[in-house]
Amino acid sequence: MSDKPAGFPKPSSIEVAKGAEAAQAAYPYYMQFAPEDDERFWFYNSMHFPEPMHHFDMVTAEAAYCALGSSNTRVHCLPTTLGIDYRVINGRVYIGGNAVTDPAEIERRTEEFQKRAFYYYEHWERLYDQWKDKMRKLIADAQELPKPELPEFEPLENVHAGKGVASNHYLLETYHKTLEGYFRMWHHHFEFLLLGYGAYMVFFDFCKKAFPEITDQTIARMVAGFEAEIFKPDDEVKRLARRAVELGLEGKFAGDISAGDVLASLEQMGEPGKEWLKELETSRNPWFNVNVGDGFYHYHRSWNDDLSLPFSAIPGYAAKIKAGENLDRPMEKLKEERQELIDGYRDLLSTDEERGAYDQMIELACRVFPYVEGHKFYCEHWYTNLFFNKIREYGGLFVEHGLIDDAEEIFHLTRYEVEQGIVDVMTSWSNGSPTRGGKRFRAMIAERKKAIEIWAGMDSAPALGPVPDMIDDPAIVMLWGITRENLDIWLNGPADANSNEIRGFAASSGIAEGPARVIKSVQEINRLQEGDILVCQVTNPTWAPVFQKISAAVSDIGGSMSHAAIVAREYGLPAVVGTGQATARIQDGQRIRVDGARGVVTLL
Description:
Layout: H1 21-26, E1 42-44, H2 59-75, E2 81-89, E3 92-99, H3 103-122, H4 124-144, H5 156-160, H6 167-210, H7 216-221, H8 232-246, H9 259-267, H10 271-287, H11 308-322, H12 331-347, H13 352-368, H14 370-400, H15 415-431, H16 438-456, E4 463-464, H17 474-480, H18 484-492, E5 501-503, E6 505-508, E7 511-519, E8 533-536, H19 544-547, E9 552-555, H20 563-571, E10 575-577, H21 582-585, E11 591-595, E12 600-603
Parallel strand pairs: 7-8, 8-9, 9-10
Antiparallel strand pairs: 1-3, 1-4, 2-3, 5-12, 6-10, 7-11, 11-12
């Protein structure tokens, strides 16, 4: 009899942490596991939600999976997959896909998909330009939303104009508009994204059949070397570093000096300082509307809110500029390599029909692929930052009216509780009585703060429920890096647990050796030193300024087309992703070797 486990723990077997029961129960009912969920496979989405979720922040999962499912299931009608279900337990988000397996239904959906998706592929550039206009309009609308505040008396001009609606009504209207805009943004986010992946996946499948020995990384390199907005913030930091060197100001950024002190010092510098500050303003709008995380947590603030991340990168960039090093991404090299690979593999095809199909597929993949990263700047970063800052304004309103003690505490409330608080404030202003929710909110916030602490110290099961016979959703493999092999490692431990090697996806070629810096959260990235190898659950494109310090990157989660893998290739940095166990097995400071071409990390 085999002692191999039959599967991962059932969701119903996961106990809520002692002391966090009320916090768990506060998440909306549709996010809670139910008995019928025991029969399904779920995995912890540590790529997008690597930290316990504050109650308000769960709106990011709500809005994202609502829009993703709509795009998959109803708009573009993907033939073999519907949307994604999500649940939250002990602050961690688990997701499970809904597959289409009936051949007749797949055929029916394929007909719909072709009528819809092919139109997008044929008119990609026009529709994408239209998409940018829609996003800019959505951003402008969010920027124009009024600050939620209440005067002592209704302004006289409103009364004399016969406006007929008092100021407290607009607290509710603005809140609804804020939420509506955020949900709408996620629909825009997925309008092109899945089609971008789809075009690449069709080409990927063709290559795997036509060239059995080809690696995932080689196929990925055939679409490398592209321009996308998500790389612009880092390009702007490099530009500012160049100007600092030209103006003789690079010394102002050295050491542990705060961003505020740097700004104050530059203002007193006369013309050179004023010139650099003018350049900073050019970069800040819009390119510093990028946050230090992936856009899913309220406390992952934008560079505009906290200049310390971009400023901390300037000394390293300035030193390399003075040493005559080239800071630019190796675009020409990537493009040349891309074309050599495309031509080389094309020559291996034996018929004109195969070559024609190959040409068509790679042309489409290269046309649509820049969107896969480009959309992130507008959606997860610029818009999401505006959204959370608007909620922060409501936090300030709640402090002013005695509901909470600190504006940041509003994020411990669900979006439904925030609306209750708004109506409490509206009522208080209208009837002259104090707000009624302060005692209630303070007790809930204290419970939830404690719960976040408890959950942050707990290990979470990487997956729940029965093990699927196969992982046939290419997005789950390419984006999250979840394969049957990985599931077996999660279940039974690595077969080579005593080996000094850890295997993952070969994300970006090259070999690097150095001390491992195990980074568990965004707050720790300032621990990275020159030459370190970044080891983390998942890397983030907006950590690009620290890429100039590190020599390689290793992640627990992620496939060959994860954001981490794409960015590593674009920067020419060796990377191994989807190891499933790097942060558990590698000690902080331990010397390791990363072989990005083979997907192997060696503990030295």
